[in-house]
TrEMBL record:
Keyword Oxidoreductase belongs to the record: yes
InterPro entries per record: AKR, Aldo/ket_reductase_CS, NAD(P)_OxRdtase_dom_sf, NADP_OxRdtase_dom
Domain NADP-dependent oxidoreductase residues, every copy: 27-259
Organism the protein comes from: Emticicia aquatilis
Name assigned to this protein: 2,5-diketo-D-gluconic acid reductase
Residues binding substrate, per UniProt: H109
Family named by the database record: Belongs to the aldo/keto reductase family.
Alphabetical list of SUPFAM superfamilies matching this protein: NAD(P)-linked oxidoreductase (SSF51430)
GO MF assignments: oxidoreductase activity, acting on the CH-OH group of donors, NAD or NADP as acceptor
Length: 272
């Protein structure tokens, strides 16, 4: 039986290391995917205003019957809703759509140059007012984190970025570790683009696991949280079945060499 692993965020709150991402899921598909994930054992669900499925995610959370305190729900402020007052309003709207008692983690979705400072200050207000359990950022590479330090009075709890063996942002991982920011990977499976890599296939055969499970286990052993996206029950279960084996240090080092700076999403540095 797979058992979820947790990380303690820099403010003391616990967050599951493995979760479900719900990007590009709509209506009943999104709701069903979350219900399947929660039945499988997932306790972290990651959505965003940009995904237009917050209501469905909230429905699934309530429908599951699982005690709210056992679940960890993340959402994010949309790019067009950034700015101090607009962010506060956007948070209220997300909470209303989700229709749950509270949000565990609220993130700046993208570091938009003109608004990211005021947006972060709004997140700090939401946190200090006790309206959200934790705040963080997404798509913040090292230069963005360095800039954030010039005006932030709260260190982000989480930094969610595109991260995989094929986009191994080692420097960012080390900076986040030093600053006690939990790194979280979206599109960790590279949208399936490297599942036929012979190197990865060889490791999958060695450990009697799938290529996706090797990638997710690699991230976990690096202490990186992952939120693979799937609306397929078999894949949802497969992605969660990663707690019963361990990759050797030699093979971890080998996977670290897979990096090819492969991005499937825009480069955040284009916004700097």
């Amino acid at each position: 039986m797979s058992t979820q692993l947790y990380t303690t965020l820099n403010n003391g709150h616990q967050m599951p290391l493995l979760g479900l991402g719900v990007y590009d899921m709509y209506n009943r598909e999104a709701e069903q995917a979350v219900l399947w994930a929660l039945e499988t054992g997932y306790r972290l669900i990651d959505t965003a205003e940009m995904y237009k499925n917050e209501a469905e995610i909230g429905n699934a959370v309530r429908e599951s019957g699982i005690n709210r305190t056992e679940l960890f729900v993340t959402t994010k402020v949309n790019n067009g809703d950034q700015g101090f007052d607009k962010t506060l309003k956007a948070f209220d709207e997300s909470l209303k759509k989700l229709n749950i008692d509270y949000i565990d983690l609220y993130l700046i979705h993208w570091p938009i140059k003109a608004t990211r400072k005021d947006t972060w200050l709004a997140l700090e207000k939401l946190y200090t007012d006790g309206r959200v359990k934790a705040i963080g950022v997404a798509n913040y590479l090292v230069p963005f984190l360095t800039e954030l330090e010039t005006y932030a009075s709260i260190i982000p709890a989480v930094n969610q970025v595109e991260f995989s063996p094929y986009l191994y942002l080692k420097d960012l991982a080390e900076v986040c570790k030093q600053k006690k920011i939990q790194l979280q990977a979206y599109t960790p499976l590279v949208r399936g683009m490297r599942m036929n890599d012979p190197k990865l296939q060889g490791l999958a055969q060695k450990y009697n696991k799938t290529p996706a499970q090797i990638i997710l286990r690699w991230a976990l052993q690096h202490g990186v949280s992952s939120i693979p996206k799937s609306a397929n029950l078999q894949r949802i279960k497969e992605n969660f079945d990663v707690f019963d084996f361990e990759i050797s240090q030699t093979d971890m080092n080998f996977i670290d060499t897979f990096n090819e700076n492969l991005r499937v999403v825009e480069d955040p540095m284009d916004l700097f």
